[in-house]
Amino acid sequence: MKAPNSAGRRAGQAARPSPAPRRPSAAGASSRVAAAELLHLVLEENSDLETALQNSETYRGLAGPDRGFARAIASASLRGLGRIHWALGALVDRPLDQIESPVKILLIIGCAQLWLMGVPDHAAVSATVEAARSWRPARRGGGMVNAVLRRASREEALFETSPLIAIWPDWLAARMKAALGNAGADALAALQLEEPPIDLSLKPGENPQTWADRLGGEDLPNGSVRLMAGINLTESPGYAEGAWWVQDAGAALAARLWERFGARTSRICALRQAARLCNWPLRARA
User: How many whole angstroms separate alpha carbon 136 and alpha carbon 116?
Assistant: First the structure.
């Protein structure tokens, strides 16, 4: 189809072809590529996520919010993997195991953004499609990623109605239902889908209430500070100065017990562990 003549063009003058518009890179595509690499390392190379974070060149090349977002996508994808598989299976025309692994991984991280993270539809779809075009292993799958994610953005009910226990393999789901009942298994699965909070331990002498106020968190009875999930720690006050570090509140409590009771603590813990393993009765002294 020819472009219309511009105003003032002389009759019979050949129209000069306009240069093709340059397609801008979707914002955040590099975060999606990094998330895809992390999932590839975990799902295809049997790595744990922490090791994958160290081994992904694309992830290590990110900084600040982009790095945090890539990790958040990977974490959400892994937590909801079984339910995403369940719902995604209704959106494709073949079994999931017949889709090339890199393309399937991009579909997973796209669905995680749409269904679990609340990323706006256009941003999730366009940036993930751009990631397919720039990530060499998935370069031929851009069209499929685009079509399936656009449909996924319209059919969120597929995910919402998927069984909560689909996050587990069938054999584990069956055992959970047998042990906890249907309602208990669903409740545990729903809890697993939640992103856990972040606990911080403070340098000696730092005030937990002060840091809880500065960081928008909650000071815990054991002296830790608990933050909502998803916060960008590297950009938070106190990170550069080393005023705090990430440590689970339970682990911090064990450290404080050691500080107070010393070797007695390790003997108590060792005895309780031996009792559990050997099924010994363990009663407190009167």
Answer: 26
From 228, 230, 198, 189, select the one nearest 80 (Cα to Cα): 189
Sign of CA dihedral 232, 237, 240, 241: negative
Per-position DSSP letters for 143-157, written without gaps between them: HHHHHHHHHHHH-TH
pLDDT of residue 229: 74
Q: In the numeric block, which tokens belong to residue 127?
A: 């940036």
* 257 burial type by CB count under 10 A (0-12 exposed, 13-18 middle, 19+ buried): middle
Alpha carbon 223 to its chain centroid, in Å, reads 28
**In the Cβ-directed half-sphere of 268, how many Cα atoms lie within 13 Å?**
11
Q: Which residues of the chain have pLDDT under 50?
A: 1-26, 279-286
Q: Are 130 and 29 in contact (CB under 8 A)?
A: yes
Alpha-carbon span 280 to 209, nearest angstrom: 42
Residue 203, CA distances (Å) to 117, 207, 237, 239 in order: 33, 9, 14, 12
| Token reading at 193 | 């889908």
CB 66 within 8 A of CB 110: no
Tell me the angle at which helices 142-154 and 121-134 cross, rounded to the nearest 10 degrees: 170
